[in-house]
Write a structure and sequence with these properties.
Blueprint lengths: L11 E5 L1 H8 L3 E7 L7 H12 L3 E4 L2 H6 L7 E6 L10 E5 L4 H13 L4 E5 L8 H6 L8 E5 L2 H7 L4 E5 L5 E2 L10 E5 L15 E4 L11 H13 L5
Parallel strand pairs: 2-3, 5-6, 5-10, 6-7, 8-10, 8-11, 9-11
Antiparallel strand pairs: 1-4, 2-4
Helix pairs in contact: 1-2, 4-7
């Protein structure tokens, strides 16, 4: 049994925790499952073991993977999964330009799924969505969302043209609440946590600002995405 810490250039990743492993059972290609010797029997553990037996997945009972892969004392199940290349469909998208925080990205994946947006485009350079910290932050949503990386915004635009593009910028003049969602397809574009979007995005998008008080510099990225998604999808929930 060879266990090594997660590396971005490897073809596999790890899912940490019983709840997330259950989410992964039918939504990912599981290579093997590690169960800590101190794990107590439960419905979740029994479900994981039964699934592994039915699908010919190797189960390893050892504390070694846990000592290497996680510092959390309450993690008793880990799944090793094969990375898969996901492709966006031609529906509505969240576009993240150079996101740099694992927790933020995982939270945005979960928030997007909650509002019914199943496609996230990520413009490099960016954090790795397959990092176990990001998968954990998504609370299982990772397995139900199409996430595709692009080398540049220009590469993204070559694939997706006939839609409305909205960029979220602090110096925009159009307030979010004045924008009517009357288009068939749209892309909501957000910049890096520290630097936002540069002015070139104004050339091909409708720049939007989320109004706020002067008491804070700006909303953080996951909050901004959540506010924007609420506005653009609220008709879907009426």
């Amino acid at each position: 049994m060879k266990i090594q810490k997660y590396k971005k250039n490897e073809a596999f990743s790890y899912v940490l925790g019983a709840a997330l492993v259950i989410d992964a059972l039918d939504n990912s290609n599981i290579i093997e499952i590690y169960i800590h010797p101190n794990t107590k029997e439960s419905d979740s553990i029994n479900k994981i073991i039964e699934y592994a037996k039915d699908n010919g997945i190797n189960i390893i009972n050892s504390d070694k993977p846990f000592n290497i892969l996680t510092k959390k004392q309450n993690c008793f199940v880990i799944a090793k999964i094969q990375k898969e290349k996901k492709v966006l469909d031609d529906k509505n998208h969240v576009v993240l330009v150079n996101p740099s925080d694992f927790g933020n990205l995982g939270t945005i994946v979960r928030t997007s799924l909650g509002f019914g947006i199943n496609n996230i485009a990520i413009i490099r350079d960016a954090v790795d969505v397959y990092d176990p910290k990001c998968i954990r932050a998504s609370m299982g949503a990772f397995f139900k969302v199409n996430i595709e990386y692009f080398d540049s915004i220009e590469d993204y635009l070559k694939r997706f043209k006939n839609r409305a593009f909205y960029s979220f910028m602090l110096d925009a003049q159009t307030k979010l609440q004045t924008v009517e969602n009357s288009v068939d397809k749209y892309s909501l574009i957000f910049g890096n946590e520290a630097h936002g979007l540069d002015d070139k995005y104004k050339r091909f998008t409708t720049p939007i600002i989320i109004p706020q008080t002067s008491d804070v510099d700006s909303f953080n990225l996951p909050i901004s995405v959540g506010i924007a998604l609420y506005h653009f999808t609220k008709k879907d929930f009426e």
